[in-house]
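Quick start: read one record
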Amino acid sequence: MRRQSIWFIGPGQIEVREEELGVPEAGQLLVQTRLSAISPGTEMLFYHDEVPEEMALDDSIVALPGMARFPFKYGYASVGEVCAVGSGVAGDWLGRRVFSFHPHESAYLAVPGELMLIPEGIGWEDAVFLPNMETALNLVLDAAPLMGETAAVFGLGIIGLLTTALLARLPLALLAALDPLATRRAQAGARLCVDPFAPDALEQVAQAAALAGSTGGVDLVVECSGSPRALDQALALTGTEGRIVIGSWYGKKAVSLNLGGRFHRSRIRLIGSQVSTLAAGLTGRWSKQRRFGVAWEQIRQVRPARWITQRFSAGAADRAYALLSENPAEAIQVIFEY
């Protein structure tokens, strides 16, 4: 059979290629993709050539071998149906709905260990959010929020919206969300939503935190805007002994921080968070499998498909990436349909 595969061939250049795909060999399954989701923060870094070439595409994902050098396939949020199996694979895999960390393409071969069954009661459009929900959950696990704390989230792309949705389910004294786009602030569900570029943005959040009992700034900030400027704002907003969880990947963007002021004496902690691994302090009780189980349950509760703003065919992939590059305010989650 033939498949469509989406290739990054140069900065700002996308090509859809028709490729031959063989039948499943022993131990393999053939998956027909239904949907795949663009992860806009990460994929725009690759699209704009803002990832160092010496970095691996993702050395934690079998389907993403090689380095960040054009041309390459990318993507890691794919849902589909098993339509054929090779010898040695149980026949009950046929027809099963599966998720895979796989690039954007209409069909692919995989082994059972690369696939996850989509739980009953979760639709295709919700299931494709699994990687982003797992990332948001990892941010919350690394943040370790306490009952009655004040918290703020910078950036309301899909990761920020999911992180805010998870934090909103906890008994916090204050949850604030900051994003320059009013359309995204309207989706956040936080008690206080602020434009971070407003002259009094940080003052608004600090005052609300003080009213909630947190003097000198907020207890916890999650930075997932992708903007280095937001990290400096997060430092200004965080109170003494507070912590900032950095979920953004800045790629080649330079980060300039004001560390000469109150940062040193305030003992603020900067915590890097990345979903490929679990924090060492959790590994005695948590595994990736446990985290996936919680992520699936939160997908069931949050129903993130409501944040899908555009649907494209694979053949129109260049238009999808151009939209995210040129008019990001128009999109939250973009998906491909096959």
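The CA atoms of residues 24 and 80 lie 16 Å apart.
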